[in-house]
Amino acid sequence: MIEVDDGHQLARAPEHTRRGVGGSPGRSLRIAWQGPLGEDGGVRYAGLQLIRGLRDSGVEIDCYMTEPPEDAPESLREDGRIGIYSRPRRWEWDRWYSRDPLSAFLTGQAANGVAQLGMAKLIAREHARRPYDVLYRYSQIELFGVRRLIDSLPPIVVHPEVHAAGELFWHRRERALSKRAESRERRHIARAMLMARSARQRRDLRLVRRVVAPSNVFASHLVKDYGIPLERISVVPNPIDLDRYAPQSGVSANGHARTTLLFVSRLSVRKGLDLVIGLSHRLADIADRVKIEIVGDGSLWSDYRPLLQDLNPAVATYLGQLDPDPLAAVYARAGALIQPSQYEPFALTVGEALASGIPVVASDQVGATEGVDPRCCTVFAAGDLDAFEAAVRALVARIESGEHADMGRLARAEAERLFSPDRVTRGVLESIKVAVNGRARWP
Q: For the chain, what is the HEC assignment?
């Protein structure tokens, strides 16, 4: 049902369908969830799968959103078992403050922070009314509005997908690339923003009880950059929709004259676009046998798309940004995915490719490659173009020799083993229980 509560739109499951407070014998966990949710793929879609998995495990969930309730995924709006609290931020596209990508990013972040301050007060009020076991903050590290209310809130678990210190390191490291793609003003503002966010994230993480990281490599960055004790971090991979991303009958890379190497990524800092461009020239001698297809868009604060003009057109093609269904079809007909990121906490694209039945070549900084059978996932040293080229050529030779079907079956099996929503949900639940039963914040 929809109610109006202190000026906030509120969709709440009927009270009689809700169970008791978690943490007691025979009672379900009760979670306040904050984070992006959506049907359109990426981190938002991974968050939606986690919500569904927790719900199906008997967890009682209230989602707190800074978007209008009608923007919540339809499957959640229609689910009487999930409460939706909405306090929309006061921000719109195509205003004086949002007419270019960078200003839109900065003002959007500010508006989101203001909205989250009000949301923190709402969570504290609902927690006093009927206590939550944990406040689960998905995707965002900064605790806007939480610090001043920390004693009125449940224990906090943060589940980041990236951290500003990692972005900052590579923004500095790739200054020569960004100079070719972006204005000086854009680079300087982005650098200042990342520095401020890094400082805030390091401070705010000291208020949380547990951190859920999608990979061991990302956990190591959090320890090094923010001083988080390793014992306070749980490593749980991201879920992959094994129905949306699946091999398609009658579709095979061997049915094409050229093997397609697919690069799906945000076209921005630290994603390895320069390595893909270099590879397009290195593979010129086999242009009749191999092609690279690039899918993606720039971000609001970092956009490397101007570098695409350096691609070798005989080998590489830019397809632009694709919606989930067309992207799933592109995965299914590809020969392999390439993911040469310099820094990558997870890479949903790797899980999506494996689920689609295609092998992967990725750098050793891509978190999603951890534990994957090397027969369908080749890993090379990040930044080493020679090693990248050698790995790709070896994989193309295997595909051309008739191994693609076997690699595809193994890739699919690995995705099911590592990234099924059920498995991931169990890992997240275990992390939440450790947080609920653990001691308070670290010094």
A: CEEEECCEEEECCCHHHCCCCCCCCCCCCEEEEECCCCCCCHHHHHHHHHHHHHHHCCCEEEEEECCCHHHCCHHHHCCCCEEEEECCCCCCCCCCCCCCHHHHHHHHHHHHHHHHHHHHHHHHHHHHHCCCCEEEEEECCCCCCCHHHHHHCCCEEEEECCCHHHHHHHHHHCHHHHHHHCCHHHHHHHHHHHHHHHHHHHHHHHHCCEEEECCHHHHHHHHHHHCCCHHHEEECCCCCCCCCCCCCCCCCHHHCCCEEEEEECCCCCCCCHHHHHHHHHHCHHHCCCEEEEEECCCCCCCCCHHHHHHCCCCCEEEEECCCHHHHHHHHHHCCEEEECCCCECCCHHHHHHHHCCCCEEEECCEHHHCCCCCCCEEEECCCCHHHHHHHHHHHHHHHHHHHHHHHHHHHHHHHHHHHCHHHHHHHHHHHHHHHHHCCCCCC
**Structural domain includes residue 248:** no
Per-residue pLDDT of 41-73, as tens digits, reads 899 999 999 999 999 999 999 999 888 888 888
164-173 vs 184-204: helix crossing angle, rounded to 10: 150
Would you say residue 375 lies in a domain?
A: yes
* Residues 70 and 145 reside in one and the same domain: yes
Q: Specify if 148 maps to a domain.
A: yes
Q: In which domain, by residue range, is 334 found?
A: 253-419
269 and 382 belong to one structural domain = yes
Please tell me the predicted confidence (pLDDT) of residue 110: 74
Number of domains in the chain: 2
What pTM was computed for the model?
A: 0.91
CATH number of the domain encompassing residue 36: 3.40.50.2000
Residue 244 resides in a domain: no
Q: Is 152's pLDDT higher than 50?
A: yes
Same domain flag for 331 and 373: yes
